Amino acid sequence: PPPSPPRPPLAPGESFETAANFTMEVGEAVCSASEAIFPAGCTDSGRRRQLSEFTANVTTALIASYAALDPPLTITEEQITVTEISEPSDTPRVVSVVIVDLGGQGPSAEEIAESTNSQDFTKNMNEQMREPVALES
Questions:
Q1: pLDDT (tens digit, 9 = 90+) per residue, 87-116?
Q2: What are phi and psi of 133, to 5 degrees?
Q3: Chain-centre distance of CA 55, in angstroms?
Q4: What is the DSSP letter of 41?
Q5: Three-state secondary structure along the chain?
Q6: pLDDT tens digits, residue range 39-60?
Q7: How many Å is the maximal CA-CA distance in the chain?
Q8: CA 95 to CA 87: how far, in whole Å?
């Protein structure tokens, strides 16, 4: 698809409405409590991906997961802020996700919020990330 035109800059004091704000766990806990005490028996199973690469992967997965819904939602990268709140070696990795409504461009805050809470969205995220994903609002 052609890139969407850049949105006009916000006027002073103007802000976009937050449409969805949730944390998401990606992956499964690899270590049991006893293994965590003896780290030699505990691997991070190659999850030490770069932070920026991981959050970029989550962003890409979010966009694809909304687009795969019925009806599809078009969410752009500019609307999404993904912040990792776990350590890169933690399992599962935990991210905070904030998606804003672009004020008349694209889906409404209500549509985004409703879609985010759907089973299909979580299923899509699992498929996109190729590992278990758990959303918590």
A1: 877 888 889 999 998 887 889 989 999 999
A2: -125, 130
A3: 8
A4: G
A5: CCCCCCCCCCCCCCCCEEEEEEEEEECCCCCCHHHHHCHHHCCCCCCCCCHHHHHHHHHHHHHHHHHCCCCCCCCCHHHEEEEECCCCCCCCEEEEEEEEECCCCCCCHHHHHHHHCCHHHHHHHHHHHCCCEEEEC
A6: 333 344 333 334 578 889 999 9
A7: 54
A8: 10
